[in-house]
Amino acid sequence: MTSVRYRADDDRRQTPVRPTDEDPVAAAGSEFIGGPAGRWALSGHRWWNPLRVMVLVVIGMFALGMAQKASCYSGGWFQPPPGDLQYAHACYSDIPHMYTQRGFGADLVPYFDRIPESLSGSADIHYLEYPVLTGLFMEVASWLTPPGSGQHSAQVFWIANSGMLMVCAVALVVCVARTNRLRPWDGLFVALSPALALTATINWDLFAVALAAGGLLAWSRGRTGWAGVLIGLAAAAKLYPVLLLGALFLLCLRAGRLRDFGRTALAAVVAWVVVNLPVMAFAPHGWAQFYTFSKDRGTDYGSLWMIVSDRSGDALDGVNEYGIALMLVLGVGIAALALYAPRRPRLGQLSFLVVAALLISNKVYSPQYVLWLLPLAVLARPRWRDLAIWQGAEVLYFLGIWYRLAYLNSTKHHGLTADAYHLAIGVHLLGVLYLCALVVRDILLPEHDVLRRGGADDPAGGVLDGAEDAFVLGAPVHAPKHASAPPVPYADGGPRPEARPEGGPYGG
Fold it and tell me: What per-residue confidence (pLDDT) applies to 44?
């Protein structure tokens, strides 16, 4: 009898955790495809491993997202002003508009060639206002597009970008699935995400998100230098991944592993400089456009500050200062939490909180920004009910912003009034805060953390997994020496169905 229990425990250590085993929402949802997998399914064709299933799922969801843009592709993007069809059908994308407005159709070189105001439509935009690596991504897509500035070329530009972004989506799912070795199926929520399908081809954010997820995967494998390189490249595509270095610093400070952090930070700086330096040196004005545009941008759609501005009637000229002040307050709170919590937070938890703090305090929230949080939310709180609630709030906001723009850009004003749009912003903020509250609770009460109920420390923590605390403000509860503690067993405490006693048909 003892040998049976030993082998069952050993199997739980080695068998990947399936959401249908421990998550009632995932188990209920699996009924649409025949219910949770049993032992016979698991012993079937080995080709159908979790990674291949999730890759096929995300390709299917991405294709559905492209299909959702069909009415815009066939003409909605190219309507003369006010052009409300792309908003009324919620199929807007920046990509085809940027093709003509940023000079790709005129064969202008990003950052080097000045964009005429007749193309950009703005007296404030003189060069491409995107970070350098994203500009390179756009330029590569333009090489795949037939020359010309007409509708057909803009459509092909969107198709070329979408194909490249689909590769990024696959890479994102693979990275999330492999970051925690014993929980590969957590990547399925990313693959099935409605927000991913709806927003993936609005802009180029998915490129930076995939690079940042690659950095977290490299860190989870103990490859601190490669983690820095990928985070640095992600920051060269979109600035927000710099915050991941802040989360790593706090965790390494608490664990006394600042040398590892130093290697990662140095690699990130070198990677960022290698990408940016050529443009910075030979086209300084074009390189600076992204930073000046971001600084000078006023209160914009989706932000907390837009509600304040509209309700008070004040233009909020100091919105930069307000946003920075709120971010600093939230950052100090997150730092205190990281150093005071009874156990060191997991990397996924702290990364989610710092990026969520930026989105809450930022002066703009574009609908595709949900992609910044998606992999971090899955790593921080892999519970399908809570992730679904948050995603529902984000989908409502996705519809809200387009219907608000439809109201403003149509003569009949069909869409959302300002009050209704403010409500949509509030729903988005509450969704993010709801998930933040659960993550904070998991940090303060580790027994609520599904990844730690079996005694594990941080399966995605790399060199931090199982490390003792060296600097802590509260009374620490030291992490276990071994990170391979078994995941949560079935609710009845018994072995999994595939566990077999020694000497049986599956015995050694």
Answer: 47
CB 381 within 8 A of CB 439: yes
Confidence of residue 473 (pLDDT cuts 50, 70, 90): confident
Average pLDDT of the chain is 87
What tens digit of pLDDT does each residue of 44-72 get? Answer: 456 678 899 999 999 999 999 999 999 99
Q: What are the structure tokens assigned to 216, written together?
A: 């977290």
Q: Is the peptide bond preceding residue 116 cis, with omega within 30 degrees of 0?
A: no
Quote the CA–CA distance of 343 and 453 in Å, as a whole number.
Answer: 13
Nearest Cα to 208, choosing from 47, 333, 216? 216
Tokens of 150: 């007409």
Residue written as token pair 């990662």: 264
CB 272 within 8 A of CB 328: no
CB-side exposure of 156: number of CA atoms within 13 Å? 15
**Whole-number Å distance between alpha carbons of 492 and 490:** 5
Question: Taking Cα atoms as reference points, which of 86, 88, 110, 89 lies closest to residue 98?
Answer: 110
How far is the CA of 321 from the CAs of 40, 93, 292, 372, in angstroms? 60, 30, 15, 23
pLDDT of residue 160: 98
**How far, in Å, CA of 131 to CA of 287, rounded?**
8
For tokens 């930073």, name the residue: 291
The kind and range of the H/E element at 62 are helix 50-68
In angstroms, the CA 233 to CA 226 distance is 11
Neighbours of 94 (CB within 10 A): 18
Residue with tokens 């939230």: 330
In angstroms, rounded to a whole number, what is the distance separating the alpha carbons of residues 254 and 222?
17
Question: Which tokens is 61 given?
Answer: 């969801």
Model's pTM, two decimal places?
Answer: 0.87
Q: Quick: pLDDT tens for 149-169.
A: 889 999 999 999 999 999 999
CA distance 96 to 89: 16
